[in-house]
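#help-structures
NK: newbie question, is this the right format to request a structure? protein is CCHC-type domain-containing protein
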Amino acid sequence: MKTMATAMERQNKPSQEFDVRRFKKFLGPDGIFHGTKEPIVAKKWLQSIQKEFKAMLVPEKDKVRFATYMFHGDADNWWEFVQRMEDMSRMSWKNFVKLFLEQYFPPTAKAAKCMEFAFLQQGDMTVTQLDKKFAELERYASHLVPTQELKERKLESALKAPIRDRVVSYHHVTYKRVLRIALAVEANWVQILKEREESDKKKKVKPNPPATPKRPRTDYVAKKDNRTGSECYNYGQVGHFARECPLPAKPKPQNNNQPRNHNIRGRPQNHPRNPNVGGRPQNQSRTVTPAFQPRQPNVQGKLNYVT
């Protein structure tokens, strides 16, 4: 009879090894903790483990063993180091939580989260996202909003100005009421922006009246316009001026009405005559030989000039 009772007790109470494996299988890959440098990730893992302990009715004495069984990688290395330093066989769950938070959620990280809550603003978040962020950070800064009224005021101050201006016009008593009104104002605001965008799109799509057709330019006009920039007046070519023309300059046409140059060939125009030539005074007038008469050859010992 006693043997039968013992066998039934063993069937009703599975082994510790089976309980741990079942616990790990129940949590799945999300229950494994590899260690992290993000304090909020470690905090969330610890909260999920505690939630599973309540659901599966894990005894207080087995919680440390179940939790550390989910450690992998860096977290497992950290736990082995802790066990070498002191005996953890009788560690309570409360002391384990304290030790875990000191490692993965130090006081400096908590202070940073508290500061983030103090300066929390909606920014690009929706009201729903703001509410989620508010609840996440409030855990580390509950001393900043000890009453419901302060909690309500904090949410109002974090809202965007267009939403906050509408929300503060109501008399609020709870956080949930502030949140509900903010969600309604945001939905109305989003609808107005959407209608405005659709109206702007219709204005852009509206066809413009036909413009007056312009007379096309002829080739001659285009060519003339192109030549106004730099035109060679020597040969009429475009692209350079006459002073830069590589071709020889054209001879200028002779004007019959202009006086001819009667200077003696070979003598510079402004060169003064020798006053002693031929014994004639310097100011004595002489008759200029016409250009069409041939020059007379000089005879040795005589000076030819016209009297």
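mod (FA): yep, format's fine, and the tokens are attached above. The two ends are 178 Å apart (CA to CA).
NK: thank you!
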